[in-house]
Design brief:
Distance between the termini: 22 Å
Strand order of the largest sheet: 1-3-2
Shape: globular
Largest sheet: 3 strands, antiparallel
Order of helices and strands: HHEHHEEHH
Helix content: 55-70%
CATH architecture: Orthogonal Bundle
């Protein structure tokens, strides 16, 4: 038995549509800038940031996939492309024959080291400078609330 859909109110739809358009436009522009500035894809950048900022340069494959909210197959393809270009390496896990570590190589560290300062400037120019500190604080609170709410919801 299908329940009647709970459609969004016009105000809810306007908020949702604005959020999606802002997010897609911002991510699209930042992705194009990363590619133009560094030759890396946005996916390369996300993986290298996760490895170097959160993982100390190495993470278990599944932990890395979870940290960027990707499916295993997407991460596997991405890591394969990055390995071919020498940005990451794969190391077997000595205490778990099925597990593996993904490790940022010296070339990966150089690539992220060169790309990150330019990326931060674009984030500042396109996003940070558009908002007051109070608005940034409010956005951070809202984002954290939505993230906490999603943690409680089934995937």
């Amino acid at each position: 038995m299908n329940a009647t859909p709970r459609w969004l109110t016009s105000e809810q739809k306007a908020a949702w549509d604005s959020f999606i358009r802002m997010q897609e436009t911002l991510i699209g522009r930042l992705s194009r800038r990363i590619q133009a500035d560094s030759g890396m894809s946005a996916s390369d950048y996300i993986v290298l940031v996760s490895l170097t900022e959160r993982g100390g340069g190495r993470m278990r494959f599944l932990e890395l996939a979870k940290s960027v909210e990707w499916e295993k197959s997407r991460m596997s393809h991405q890591v394969g492309r990055m390995r071919k270009r020498g940005l990451v390496a794969r190391e077997e896990c000595p205490d778990d024959g099925r597990g593996a570590f993904i490790v940022a190589t010296p070339a990966g560290y150089r690539a992220i080291g060169e790309a990150a300062p330019l990326h931060v400037e674009h984030v500042r120019r396109l996003f940070i400078e558009a908002l007051t500190q109070e608005e940034l604080d409010t956005l951070a609170r809202i984002s954290n609330r939505v993230l906490a709410h999603m943690e409680k919801q089934p995937d």
